[in-house]
Specification:
Blueprint: E1 4-6, E2 18-22, E3 33-36, E4 45-48, E5 66-69, E6 78-79, E7 102-104, E8 110-112, E9 118-122, E10 129-132, H1 133-138, E11 166-171, E12 177-181, E13 191-195, H2 197-200, H3 203-210, H4 222-228, E14 231-233, H5 234-239, H6 242-254, E15 256-260, H7 268-274, E16 288-290, E17 306-309, E18 321-329, E19 332-333, E20 336-340, H8 341-350, H9 355-361, E21 363-370, E22 373-380, H10 406-427, E23 433-435, E24 442-446, E25 450-454, E26 457-458, E27 464-471, H11 473-482, H12 484-489, H13 498-509, H14 518-528, H15 533-542, H16 547-550, H17 559-566
Parallel strand pairs: 14-15
Antiparallel strand pairs: 1-2, 2-3, 4-5, 5-6, 7-8, 8-9, 9-10, 11-12, 12-13, 15-24, 16-27, 17-25, 18-24, 18-27, 19-26, 20-23, 20-25, 21-22
Helix pairs in contact: 8-13, 9-10, 13-14, 14-17
């Protein structure tokens, strides 16, 4: 039987791109092989026969042939009057593709310089890559274009002309690109630029190639931290040698370290902080004193019990590292409390219930409005796409958002149940590390991971005085990245994944009877570490409708859909 091509009238609209191909008498559902028409103009037309339309209910009694002209960006658009069927044209003889003009490289690779605006690179087995000449010239980081001392560019992007003739282009041994620019605007002559392969890779691969590894987090409970606690001598920290690097590494893995033999000076805490970087000044000052006083502007400046919390969540730029130097502690009580918020966050994720959804959806309002300072910010308890936590009950605003509807009541009660469980996961005895600091000791901890608090103390039996300061997130991460090779050399073996650590803790403490599939959690953890994840997080905030199109891995799989399924 002679073959023909059919198309459903239900598909003849501006959004249709599928054609069903097969033999005569197709079924109503057009259950034949489908092909996808491209979303760009097709410079040919095709006859679609409906000669045997009796088998299609909505075509009974209609024996006509419709000619579809596919000459617009949506594939199907213009319908002409029915015409008589015609025999399909003979297919044209295939022609050999023209060789790209330009420079030949290894393995039949070519650099095409025919276009005045673009450079085309063709390599066998890969998609042709197009590089804008202006972008390439602007990206040159040679000593003429970038000052070797300051690391700053010697020209602006708009200084680069759009007419950029190239004298020569060639591949390097590592797959990079060397270009000699003719009559360069900056060099006033020929200018040579080198582009390593990492600069020419597509988005995720390029980010991965430039990625700077940081110490992997170790989730801990009370027993683990008591075993792993690291205390460093002040002089060794200030020397900046191997002991300092060990302390910085442990601060990155556990989020909490101690120093001893710190001089009893108000400036000692500044000296300790400056080993990492500049301190972050807040409205509390460059440094601040934690001691009991009347009419205190902060509950920390009293002798009352202070529950586990994080500092300054009402600021837009919450400090990352907090330092507390003990100058005096002779009173009864006043023990310091610490708990790993990242461990609690991952235990919440492990549960088969929806606690993670409630704690990552509802935002809590934090505010400060005293003594001429007015600050406000909003955070969910947990970040759905990271291990960070935001928990500071003493500094929550009493004025929280509320909707007087039954649906909000139901959601709020579910959130309350999840928040109560989270509190138990940080405050119960097996999770919390308790220690009474001694004069001459200093503690450093990650304020966006480690929750801290204090037991009540009796001022009638003595005094308690701590000196504190902060380090900003950017300053802390900059230090970690600058010594990344030394820090990674301290990791003698690859630590277990967050999921593996969480499952071990759950089995130890019997937190959940029913948990999510560990394989799915491992996959979720892998996608959280994907080089494009930060890009997606920004896009979902700035352009929610367009965010998903950017989240595809190297195979083209949509990561957002995969993560939503796992979550």
């Amino acid at each position: 039987m002679k073959s023909a091509v059919y198309i459903s009238r239900g598909l003849l609209n501006s959004k249709s791109h599928h054609v069903s191909s097969g033999i005569l008498n197709p079924s109503y559902g057009l259950g034949r092989t489908s092909i996808l028409l491209p979303r760009f103009p097709i410079r040919t037309s095709r006859q679609f026969s409906t000669s045997d339309s009796e088998s299609i209910p909505w075509l009974k009694g209609r024996r006509a042939t419709t000619r579809i002209v596919s000459n617009n960006k949506r594939g199907f658009a213009n319908l002409t009057e029915p015409t008589e069927p015609t025999e399909p044209a003979e297919p044209a003889e295939p022609t050999e593709p023209a060789e790209p003009a330009g420079t030949a490289g290894k393995n039949n690779s070519y650099i095409d310089l025919d276009d005045d605006d673009l450079i085309r690179i063709t390599k066998p087995g890969t998609r042709q890559k197009l590089f804008d000449r202006h972008w390439l010239r602007d990206s040159c980081d040679c000593s003429i274009c970038v000052d070797p001392d300051s690391g700053q560019k010697n020209f602006g992007t708009c200084d680069v002309p759009t007419n950029l003739p190239i004298a020569r282009a060639s591949f390097t041994d590592d797959g990079g690109l060397d270009i000699v620019w003719e009559s360069d605007f900056l060099s006033q002559g020929n200018h040579e630029s080198h582009y390593p392969i990492a600069r020419l890779l597509p988005g995720p691969a390029s980010i991965q190639a430039k990625h700077i590894p940081l110490p992997k987090w170790i989730l801990w409970d009370k027993d683990i931290f008591e075993k792993d606690r690291l205390t460093i001598d002040y002089d060794e920290w200030m020397a900046g040698g191997s002991e300092f690097l060990s302390g910085l590494h442990r601060l990155g893995t556990h989020g909490l370290i101690f120093l001893r033999n710190v001089p009893p000076s108000d400036e000692s805490v500044v000296s300790i902080a400056n080993q990492i970087g500049n301190i972050q000044e807040t409205f509390y000052g460059r440094t601040w004193d934690v001691r009991s006083k009347p009419n205190a502007e902060n509950v920390a400046y009293t002798n009352s019990f202070l529950g586990l919390h994080q500092d300054l969540l009402y600021l837009a730029f919450t400090p990352r590292i907090q330092l507390l130097h003990c100058l005096e502690n002779t009173c009864e009580g006043g023990d310091s409390l610490f708990s790993d918020g990242a461990r609690a966050s991952h235990l919440i994720r492990l549960a088969s219930n929806n606690f993670i959804e409630h704690l990552s959806t509802k935002s809590v309002r934090y505010a400060y409005n005293k003594h001429g300072h007015v600050y406000e910010n909003f955070h969910p308890v947990l970040d759905k796409f990271s291990s960070l936590t935001f928990w500071s009950p003493p500094f929550q605003s009493s004025d929280q958002n509320m909707i007087p509807r039954k649906a909000f009541h139901s959601f709020y009660r579910k959130w309350l149940e999840a928040a109560t469980k989270f509190r138990h996961l940080i405050e119960d005895e097996q999770w919390m590390y308790q220690y009474k600091m001694q004069p001459g000791e200093c503690v450093l901890f990650d304020n966006l991971r480690i929750l801290h608090g204090r037991k009540q103390f009796d001022t009638a039996t003595g005094s308690r005085h701590l000196k504190g300061t902060y380090i900003a997130k950017d300053v802390y991460l900059s230090k970690l990245k600058s010594v990344s090779p030394e820090l990674m050399a301290l990791e003698s073996h690859k630590p277990p994944s967050m999921t593996q650590q969480t499952i071990k803790l759950n089995n130890k403490h019997k937190v959940w009877d029913e948990v999510k599939d560990p394989k799915l959690l491992e996959e979720f953890e892998k996608y959280m570490a994907h080089p494009r994840w930060q890009r997606y997080k920004m896009d979902r905030l700035n352009k929610p409708k367009n965010a998903k199109r950017f989240m595809k891995d190297e195979t083209g799989e949509e990561l957002v859909r995969r993560v939503d399924t796992i979550r």
